[in-house]
Protein ECERIFERUM 1-like (Solanum verrucosum), 639 residues
Amino acid sequence: MASKPGILTEWPWTCLGNFKYLVLAPFVCHSTYTYFMSKDERQRDIVYIIILPLLLSRIIHNQIWISLSRYRTAKGNNRIVDKSIEFDQVDRESNWDDQIIFNGLLYYIGYLMLEQAHHMPVWRTDGIIIIGLLHSGPVEFLYYWLHRALHHHFLYSRYHSHHHSSIATEPITSVIHPFAEHLSYFTLFSIPLFTTVFTGTASIASFGAYVTYIDFMNNMGHCNFELIPKWIFSIFPPLKYFMYTPSYHSLHHTQFRTNYSLFMPMYDYIYDTLDKSSDTLYEKSLKREAEVPDVVHLTHLTTPESIYHLRLGFASLASNPHTSRWYFWLMWPVTLWSIMITWIYGRTFVVERNMFKNIKLQTWAIPKYRVQYFMKWQRETINNLIEESIMEADQKGIRVLSLGLLNQASPEYMCYFLFEEKLNSNGELYLKRHPQLKVKVVDGSSLAVAAVLNSIPKGTSHVVLRGRLSKVAYSIALALCQRGIQVATLHEEEYKRLNAKLTREAATNLVLSKSYVSKIWLVGDGLSEDEQLKAPKGTLFIPYSQFPPRKARKDCFYFNTPAMITPKHLENVDSCENWLPRRVMSAWRIAGILHALEGWNENECGDMMFDIDKVWKASVDHGFRPLTLVTTSTDQSKN
């Protein structure tokens, strides 16, 4: 929102929320009916029916740029601006598709009102030339002076400051303007289109190409990584007057009073508003190499729909906790395609970058879904991917690599799925294979245990421990029994496994119970809905596993998986970690950061556990705050 919003700031359909696309429905239905059902051949016009595919192609085009930009800026090579992107920018730019709806309405209305727009040919060379000339001349010239006018304090404070709220831009920043600004922009861009319509030189190709050109140049100019190779300007030096670069327009967002041109910098040269550092920043950005982080968190995909919630997926979905959406079933072709890609593509990829004080962080993802970790024939492939990631981190000089989700799966965990072999024993397998590793491998179990223990209400005297046993579960049981808190198990096999791990003194507080009276349940994977239904009303379910239980009770409380609230000095946080609320990070991921901050020179994997109190104190000292039931309940009510 601009600092002093002017008239026509809001879009007319803002009140419709997610149903805003319904404003196009009458035109889509009419064009479809007319083309397929009309008996009059003259009414069957490909121009009318093709408007919808054009709009859909623009959405896909924009999304490709979003994903590409987020991937490249996370890696760091050729990145232009290092300033972070936060949730407020994602929320502000979440309505980037409004301009596509607006243009769609105008295309449909224009077609219905203008007889000359009917039955356009597929191609006309003269129309394409006219559009090119009119864009280079009147459109670029008028835009330059409109843009300078928008930087006058009166218009800037009421309109254009909304766009400039984003210093580190993303491709969709290009279309984040108040409604009134888009009216003026469409007026400019329609000059070539209307001219060809009224002169009879319009064609489907010229319309589609011009709209695609505008989208391409807009997205490229705001993508925040340099991609135009230097040899292009070497071959044809005058090109620098007719095509800007991402670094060129980036200077406009950081300096504000230079580089006003639309796509062709010639008017900045003519009117002396060219930023003197344009060439320097361009060459510097081209030479910039990929960033080497201090800490890497290695995660993986969860459900087939999780691809949309990745930071590289849909920005608005990634900025909120992972929840199922009703419209995902409509996207099953895309989901199926993404599954095939992840099965074929066999390399870990960078998902996110962050900064914590002076520590550089990255998140890498293994292109495998949760279900694949339980397929025996996939185990070797997954282990190889994890091993390759660890070796790559070691070769790059990365200090710490933390294992997230099932990348740290223990043999006890996998035994529940009839696997006799180990997956990787919480990372221990790789240390045995490569004892010379300098990178520290961290499974984060100690902090996960500490987070669970500090989630248990004070004064609790007895708890139920139910779920598949893991390194974390054993450590929780031991810590509670040593503190004099009674731990009840509901299955004899779990009781025997736990009892074998406890000291004789601690084992006195471990009991096998058939009673469900306790209102504090520590739960892991494998908790059934039937067992949840047996818990008393008001029970607090506290997960110790990486994945949350499937909620079966509305009269009980469900805590988040082990996690903590991040401090404000964690930068570039614009997406949620799976199902966790905004600015909440899993204990396993935090553990890697603490490892680097504290300079701990030990691996935490296999059976290795750090001092729980020491790890917890370190997390609090560095600004991480424990989650509360209020925080968890508030987030659950929003979703």
Remarks:
- The chain has 26 helices and 15 strands.
- Residues 171 and 219 are 4 Å apart (CA to CA).
- The longest strand covers residues 349-356.
- The longest helix spans residues 125-150.
